[in-house]
Amino acid sequence: MTSTACFIIVSRNDIPIYEAEREDAAQLHQFILHAALDIVQDLAWTTSAMFLKAIDKFNDLMVSVYVTAGHTRFMLLHDSRNEDGIKSFFQEVHELYIKILLNPLYLPGSRITSSHFDTKVRALARKCL
Amino acid sequence: MIGAGKIKQYSNILEKPLSKGKQEVSLSAFAFLFSELVQYNQTQVDNIAELERRLEDAGYAVGARVLELLCHRDKGNRRETRLLGILSFVHSTVWKVLFGKVADSLEKGTEHEDEYMISEKDLLVNKFISVPKDMGTFNCGAFVAGIVRGVLDGAGFPAVVTAHFVPMEGLHRPRTTILIKFAEEVLQREARLG
């Protein structure tokens, strides 16, 4: 019952700072997510909400996006329809991201290398998605 | 055992909850830390412009984090997409959290469309600092200007932010004004959003 999922965090300057894959179809998934960045760019300025739901489709895969106050984008490529699960996943990851950001030695916009963060994100993905 | 109680030991910062924390910090501790910051930077640079720039960069790092944290904590995860929205966010929410009170005033510049000013009678960082005559127009408020620039930049409103002293009648010390000059793209996007 594994559903395909690929999660990336893209900084304000359109540089991916974190990636997590459920299965190994890496290139195509990342390509789809990067192509969706343009749509996010426009959509982000039309609403003050952070969760932007499903903004793009590719075959049977959907792209959902969550934009933070600092314009860091959490993008999820998935084939399930569990919107509430996705929303709570994004909110939990947002809290983790803020904790990483509060580290004064972390340069905003640089790659997140913490293995604890990786473990927690994967655990959340298993729980919510 | 001293302090035996409900203190949980967290192995990792990611486990610790993002609480409101202590609302207040000792003023003297902050003033001391800030004076050391200024003095340290003074030894590293040769001129005033460079010193102001370093203070601004220090503030920029604070601003970027304050934006994310406050939007999550105090604004229930709503982003600011309009100019007036982000300005009032800085003027009230950010000021309240950082200095314990809202800023004294927020004004729109009369000469240029893209200029706004936040004024403060007695800016916290300038409270215990006196600037010698030979440093000219140096203003430690550059730190706060950096914080504001960090917040605006993070939210997608690039701007040039500077701090100035404005002498006021009837006040012994001059008022500090943070001057915000938005980039062209911000005004264009504002016009487009209507």
From TrEMBL, chain B:
SUPFAM superfamilies listed in its UniProt record: Ligand-binding domain in the NO signalling and Golgi transport
TM annotation in the entry: none
UniProt GO BP: endoplasmic reticulum to Golgi vesicle-mediated transport
Primary location class: endoplasmic reticulum
Keywords on record: Endoplasmic reticulum, ER-Golgi transport, Golgi apparatus, Transport
GO terms under cellular component: endoplasmic reticulum; TRAPPI protein complex; TRAPPII protein complex; TRAPPIII protein complex
Lineage top rank: taxon: Eukaryota
Pfam families per record: TRAPP
Subcellular location(s) per record: Endoplasmic reticulum; Golgi apparatus, cis-Golgi network
Subunit annotation: Part of the multisubunit TRAPP (transport protein particle) complex.
Family: Belongs to the TRAPP small subunits family. BET3 subfamily.
Protein name: Trafficking protein particle complex subunit
Species of provenance: Hibiscus syriacus (Rose of Sharon)
